[in-house]
Design brief:
This protein has helices spanning 2-26, 44-47, 62-68, 78-86, 130-140, 155-164, 176-183, 209-214, 216-235, 237-246, 266-279, and strands at 32-35, 54-57, 73-77, 93-99, 103-107, 169-173, 188-191, 203-207, 261-265. It has 299 residues and is an alpha+beta fold. The chain folds into 2 domains: 42-100 and 201-293, Periplasmic binding protein-like II (D-Maltodextrin-Binding Protein, domain 2); 103-194, D-Maltodextrin-Binding Protein, domain 2 (3-Layer(aba) Sandwich). The strands form 2 sheets. The protein has a 6-stranded mixed beta sheet, sandwiched between helices. Strands 6-5-7 form a 3-stranded antiparallel beta sheet, with helices on both faces. It starts with a helix and ends in a 20-residue tail after the last helix.
Length: 299
């Protein structure tokens, strides 16, 4: 009798979950988890209209978001999604690359240029991360291998050093760089995207396999909506800035262009992902992601 009751309870639970998912798909809604900061620009205009469907999180909780597999979509660093996919810790597939680099070398030094890095130390943030690897790779293309100061934890910390030390040369990121410039007009910078031909694949949009399986039409509609939202970062930054303000995100409008938001479907971005992998394969699990990592490649 007890076993029968347990089986009945399990069947009812499964039915309730199925009905819940079906209802969500039927009304065309979908959920998305995104880190605070530059990637939030890509979906700000959607999130402000549907705040209950969007969750903004700290960057260090991204792996947990993949593990929970609760959201239909996750925005995250491409390398993080690839590494988790390779390790079997995530089934999420890359649907698009949406940010192409927001890193900046910056200093208060007069007439600051890359030449200064031949004689003075560089302070990076996030040692042993893809950001540090990309920064050093970009410099190496110009024959510069700088002496490194002790790294700091994040772009906010290097921004603080930039503002307080007139001799410091740091790696920081948008929107921190623009905010620092507003506070101190002596600060100038060189965006890493000015040093690399195609930028680099920074943040991606990932789609949950269960969502793909149960309602591919919903996924197609969502991707179209997100692509249109990304395009506003270039065509209507005022609208994006208004959305960010409504979401209570402090983000200067002048920083929007430097965040390099552009929606490129995964199948088209594959080669550029592999170019970024070549910079530091360890950040992607040691090798190029398998074809199954890219949604749309097989279609």
């Amino acid at each position: 009798m007890k076993n029968n009751l347990k089986k009945l309870f399990s069947l009812l639970l499964c039915l309730a979950l199925t009905l819940s998912l079906t209802a969500a798909f039927a009304d065309g809604t979908w959920t998305l988890t995104c880190p605070n900061g530059a990637p939030a620009l890509s979906v700000a205009t959607i999130a402000v209209a549907r705040p209950d469907d969007f969750t903004f999180i700290a960057a260090d909780t991204i792996p947990a978001a993949f593990a929970s597999a609760e959201a239909d979509f996750i925005i995250a660093p491409v390398n993080v999604g690839a590494k988790l996919f390779k390790a079997g810790k995530s089934g999420y597939r890359l649907a698009a690359v949406i940010t192409w680099g927001n890193l900046v070398f910056a200093s208060q030094r007069e007439n600051f240029s890359l030449e200064d890095l031949k004689e003075h130390k560089l302070t990076l943030f996030g040692a042993d991360t893809i950001n540090a690897s990309v920064a050093l790779y970009a410099l190496k293309q110009y024959g510069i291998e700088p002496e490194l100061a002790d790294p700091l934890a994040g772009a906010a910390e290097t921004k603080a050093l930039l503002e307080t030390d007139p001799e410091a040369i740091v790696l920081t990121a948008e929107p921190m760089f623009t905010a620092a410039k507003v506070a101190n007009d002596k600060i100038t910078g060189i965006h890493i995207n000015e040093l690399l031909d195609n930028g680099y694949t920074q943040a991606g949009l990932f789609v949950r396999p269960e969502t793909l399986e149960k309602n591919p039409e919903l996924v197609t509609a969502a991707l179209t909506e997100i692509e249109e939202s990304c395009a506003l970062c270039e065509s209507d930054p005022d609208k994006v800035a208004e959305a960010l303000k409504a979401l209570e995100m402090k983000f200067p409008k002048a920083a929007i262009p430097g965040c390099s938001i552009s929606f490129v479907p995964a199948a088209q971005a594959k080669r550029l992902v592999e170019v970024t992998v070549e910079i530091d394969p360890a950040q992607f699990g040691g090798e190029d992601p398998a074809d199954g990592f890219y949604y749309g490649l097989e279609e």
